[in-house]
Amino acid sequence: MQKLTPFLMFQKGEAEEAMTFYTGLFDDGEVLVVERFGAGEPGPEGGIKQGVFTVAGQQLRCLDSPAVHEFDFTPSLSLFVRCGSREELEKLWAGLAEGGVPLMPLDDYGFGPFGWTNDRFGVSWQLSLS
């Protein structure tokens, strides 16, 4: 059976920090798997070889990339979250936008409260009140 899972590749050894941040910010956040690179493996020793976590009812995977790439995260692909309350929307916005780069600040754009930001890791998030 096929299953689509977003996969976040970190290039600066930030996978564990990001996973901890996201699972602490979202009420249902949970780290499911942490597998680390060992000595002599192609990745940074102790870095995340495979991380699996859930936020907003969605499972995601991540790793600390053993290879350096000329590309990184881009807002042309973002994680979209429908929030159940204004309080949840504002809490998530405050956490994700802190240290990040807001693309569309939290506001009403004629289709309800909405915000779009790149977080401090460069991952792009769209938040909307359902």
UniProtKB/TrEMBL annotation:
Protein's UniProt name: VOC family protein
Top-level lineage group: Bacteria
One Pfam family matching this protein: 3-dmu-9_3-mt
Family matches, as SUPFAM superfamilies: Glyoxalase/Bleomycin resistance protein/Dihydroxybiphenyl dioxygenase
CDD domains named in the record: PhnB_like
InterPro entries: 3_dmu_93_MTrfase, Glyas_Bleomycin-R_OHBP_Dase, PhnB-like
Domain PhnB-like positions: 2-127
